[in-house]
Amino acid sequence: MPPRYFELLDDVNKLGRWELSDPTDQHGREVDNPWMFRKGASALETDEPLGSSVQHSWQQRLLERVGDEVAEHEWIRERLKVGMMSQEVSGKDMPAELVTEQGRVGVLLGIETGTLPRSFDMPAGAVRLVTLQVLLPVELGYLLKSGKQGLEELAQRFKAGAAGHMVRAQRQPVV
């Protein structure tokens, strides 16, 4: 199966996309912050099967959870404008291989890739594309112990490794 990537761009939830008609949040309130709709997008690339319903795939759930956190917290958006960061989200309904003992899934946000652009132009302006790489529990543990140095080390190992930024539940750890 060829690799695919999904974007969170607009406001009607489709697979990895948000339609930009009436920007509203998950509670139906009008959104005042245009960044989450016009200035940033999250993407993941995978070659794993997405199942019979892409809308209910773990990859889609992961994009939604990360996207919700980015939309809700300005400090995350500000951090992503300048570089990478890590984040944890709920592991509910995620592959067991990805879930920590605490029921969380770790991700790296903003790893540079050779195949996806860092940004692209839209009618409302330039959009920063933020890549998402899911972490195995051992990788998240390494990151939590190593701090910023661990973040940079993991990013380098993903870039240099066979998986690159490809999101897979079934893979060997990079640490």
Description of the structure:
With 175 residues, the protein is α+β, with helices and mostly antiparallel strands. It contains four helices and eight strands. Strands 1, 4, 5, 6, 7 and 8 form a six-stranded mixed sheet that branches. It has a two-stranded antiparallel sheet with strand order 2-3. The longest helix has 24 residues, at 137-160. The chain is globular and about 40 Å long. The two termini are 27 Å apart. The model is unreliable at 1-24 and 33-40 (pLDDT under 50).
The number of distinct β-strands equals 8
Termini Cα gap: 27 Å
| Poorly predicted regions | 1-24, 33-40
Q: Report the total helices.
A: 4
Instruction: Estimate the mean pLDDT confidence.
Output: 75
What is the C-alpha radius of gyration, as a whole number of Å? 15 Å
Supply the helix-strand structural class: alpha+beta
- What's the SSE pattern? EEEHEHHEEEEH
Helix content: 25-40%
Strand content: 15-25%
The biggest beta sheet, please? 6 strands, mixed
The dominant shape is: globular
Could you outline the blueprint of secondary structure elements for this entry?
Layout: E1 4-7, E2 13-14, E3 17-18, H1 35-39, E4 40-46, H2 58-72, H3 74-82, E5 85-90, E6 104-109, E7 119-122, E8 125-135, H4 137-160
Helix pairs in contact: 2-3
Question: How would you describe this structure in keywords?
Answer:
175 residues, alpha+beta, six-stranded mixed beta sheet, two-stranded antiparallel sheet, 4 helices, 8 strands, globular, disordered N terminus
Q: What's this model, at a glance?
A:
The protein contains four helices and eight strands, in the order βββαβααββββα. By secondary structure, it is α+β, with helices and mostly antiparallel strands. Strands 1, 4, 5, 6, 7 and 8 form a six-stranded mixed β-sheet that branches. A two-stranded antiparallel sheet has the order 2-3.
